[in-house]
Structure formats: C-alpha cells, structure tokens
C-alpha cells in the first residue's frame, strides 16, 4: 500500500460537516490500497464537539499530533459569545455588530492571515519534515478551511518537493464571510497572494463544488477535480414519520442565511389555511442567529417553531428521516453559488423532499435537479414557494408517498473515495 499524509484541523471529537469529509475518506482509502496517516492539532479549540465520531476512526490508524496556539482562547477572556460565533462563522450584519465583535473581526482579518490557526504552520512544517524525510509517502494532502493548513503543504512542497494535493472544502478569498473581515488593502492583497501561491504550487487541487472549480480555473493552470461531499448509508432501517407536517432545517442558520420570504410564505399559509396551521411545524436544529429568530417570529410562526441545539450526527440523520420536508438554505450572494452544504447528500439519502432557497446559479440546484429530490427557489419567490408547499401539503393530507427513488450512488462516500484514490495513484 502507498501512504498518504493527510493534514487536517478538524478530526474527532470535532463535530459538524468539516470533520466528516476526511473521516469518511480515511475509512475507505484502504479498500483502494491507500494507507492514510493523519496529522492533527493536539489541543484544538473546536466550536462544535460530537464524540460519536470517535467510534468511526480506525483503531490502527497512525495519527501524529502537534500542539497548536489558539488565539480564540484569549479572545474568550473579553467575550466568549463573540469569540465562539466568529470561530463558527456566524457573523452578524454590520449594523447588528457589537463594538467587541467589530474589533475581533478587524483583528482576525488583518493580524491573523490567512486565519487564526496560522501559528500552527511553522511548528508543523518542522515536525513533518522529519517524518517525510525518514518515511516514504506517495503524497501529502491538506484540507481547508482553515486555509493556513495549505501553507503547511506549500512549505513542505518547497522544501521536500513532495507531491501535494490541496483540498478546498470552501473557497478562500471568495468565501461568504471574507468580505466581512474588515480587511485593509494590504491584507486583502496578502490573502490573494497566498491563495495564488497555493493554487500554483499544488500538484492537484480538489474542490467540493463546480463553481469553485471554475473560479480556480481562472487563477491557475494546475489540474482541478471536483469531489463533492456525500452520504454513507441508506440502510438505517425503517423509520416512522412524525405526525405533523414538519419542515426541518439541520445545521447552523447564519444571519445572512435568512430567507424572509420563506418565513412569509409559511406565515401567509397559516393565516389562510386552518388545517395547515394545525399541522405545520418548523424544526430548527443547530445554532440559529437571533436575527433569523426575530424574522421567523415576526411572521407569526412562534407557536409552530421548535428549537434544538446541536445534536449528534446520528440524531441529525434520524430527525431528517422523520421529517416531512427538509429545508436547505444558503446565503443569497454571488460568492455562495459554489457552496454545496454537506447535509444535502444526507438529505438525499433520507429520501425526503427538499425545499431549497439560495442564490441564482447555485451549484446545489444542479444536484437536486439531477436527483429529482426537490425544488430550489430564489429569495424573492414567495408565490412559487407557497404553491410548492401547498402541493406537498395536499400530498401529506392524502397520505401519499413522497419518498424519492432516484439513483444517488455516485454520492456514496465509498464511491467518492474511489475517485480520490485514483487521483492519488495518478500523481
């Protein structure tokens, strides 16, 4: 077996979608004659923890660790709440930001380039150089965000000339929150220079979306492959749907991810249709910004609203499969067209219909359309949203089966890992 060194910040017990991608790749790489070796921080500060993922780490997997200095730990002295929200990517609109949050954003954007994990670069390079000199590896793989990990790959590439794959789970300078970091002109220039250095130096680039691939194609001549996220299993056994007409959103709802016209459509249907009012439930599972909560309540949905804080991955899957309809929501901007939320693939595996709201030319639209898994709407599509919800409600009232039966095997984690393994072998 050929070995690959995978450099990642997120690893169990971290929770959320960031950890799942490489945890699942590692799980299946050996089936394709690739031996993974993991390098992670010894003392990370994860905004979300899910201890259930630890059981999926292969027992004999070799894992290297090196301590990391986390500036967010210092920031918590001044404001734990603001520190946690910024590190989670939840950034309020500027007119709703406190002075402390504005200051933290300025410091984060201009003093920690490319991100607050930059202090792990130098010690990691020194530590990994010895490992790579003394042992044979087919390649190294870095995955970001945090994009500072790509700079570890860049330094190792420069000093050892080893094959290097850079995996971008999200864009870099075009990611949604980048414009909110209050960057100076010189800081923005530095981000662009670092991004270009990574793109031009990596032997192969992986993106999780088609739009990000198109963006990077305009910045580098290096080969780029799209390997989306995926689902792991559809064999969860029989599940009983909940009694109500339940719409569920699983995952964080940031301030910018606030489809007011969706809440308005629900509100109008409640006021117009007595049966709908009695049966409708809106479940929000995960962190939700106060701005989103206020918007939902202002549309008269408070009595139909159920909150759940972060739940384990297994519990999230159960909630998805028991819901009538699943909500997929993305920020309405050009920068987010290339964001394909990881949960979309588990939504597909749940076989429940999906109501999605997002930007024009959103990559997720292509996946939902090809999988015949639901409908995608723009932020101003009130009447079309209402019509779609009513169609689903009539099916619900008449006891009709709304399960999707399309072939989604190409999104299975093992099949996606096979695509990754072929890429590694061809280096």
TrEMBL record:
<keyword id="KW-0808">Transferase</keyword>
<protein>
    <submittedName>
        <fullName>Glycosyl transferase family 1</fullName>
    </submittedName>
</protein>
<dbReference type="GO" id="GO:0016757">
    <property type="term" value="F:glycosyltransferase activity"/>
</dbReference>
């Amino acid at each position: 077996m050929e070995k690959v060194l995978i450099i990642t910040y997120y690893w169990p017990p971290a929770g959320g979608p960031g950890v799942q991608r490489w945890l699942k790749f590692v799980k299946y790489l050996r089936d394709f004659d690739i031996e993974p070796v993991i390098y992670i921080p010894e003392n990370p500060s994860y905004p979300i923890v899910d201890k259930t993922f630890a059981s999926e780490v292969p027992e004999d997997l070799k894992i290297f660790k090196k301590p990391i200095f986390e500036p967010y730990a210092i920031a918590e002295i001044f404001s734990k709440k603001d520190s946690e929200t910024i590190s989670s990517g939840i950034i309020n609109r500027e007119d709703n930001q406190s002075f402390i949050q504005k200051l933290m954003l300025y410091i984060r954007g201009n003093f920690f380039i490319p991100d607050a994990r930059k202090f792990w670069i130098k010690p990691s390079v020194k530590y990994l150089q010895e490992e790579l000199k003394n042992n044979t590896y087919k390649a190294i793989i870095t995955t970001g965000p945090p994009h500072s990990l790509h700079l570890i790959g860049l330094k190792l590439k420069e000093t050892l000339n080893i094959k290097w794959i850079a995996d971008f789970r999200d864009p870099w300078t075009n990611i949604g929150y980048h414009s909110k970091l209050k960057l100076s002109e010189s800081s923005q220039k530095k981000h662009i220079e670092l991004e270009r250095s990574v793109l031009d130096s990596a032997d192969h680039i992986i993106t999780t979306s088609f739009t990000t691939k198109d963006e990077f194609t305009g910045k580098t001549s290096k080969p780029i492959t799209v390997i989306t996220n995926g689902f792991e299993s559809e064999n969860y056994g029989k599940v009983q749907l909940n009694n109500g007409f339940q719409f569920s959103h699983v995952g964080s709802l940031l301030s910018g991810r606030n489809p007011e016209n969706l809440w308005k459509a629900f509100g109008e249907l409640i006021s117009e249709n007595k049966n709908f009012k009695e049966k409708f439930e809106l479940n929000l599972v995960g962190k939700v910004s106060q701005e989103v909560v206020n918007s939902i309540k202002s549309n008269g949905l408070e009595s139909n609203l159920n909150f759940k804080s972060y739940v384990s991955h297994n519990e999230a899957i159960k909630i998805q499969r028991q819901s009538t309809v699943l909500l997929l929501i993305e920020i309405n901007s050009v920068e987010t067209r290339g964001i394909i939320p990881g949960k979309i693939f588990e939504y597909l595996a749940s076989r429940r219909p999906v109501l999605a709201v997002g930007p024009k030319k959103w990559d997720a639209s292509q996946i939902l359309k090809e999988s015949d898994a639901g409908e995608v709407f723009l932020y101003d599509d009130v009447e079309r949203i209402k019509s779609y919800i009513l169609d689903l409600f009539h099916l619900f009232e008449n006891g009709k089966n709304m399960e999707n039966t399309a072939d989604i095997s190409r999104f299975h984690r093992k099949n996606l890992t096979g695509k990754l393994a072929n890429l590694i072998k061809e280096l």
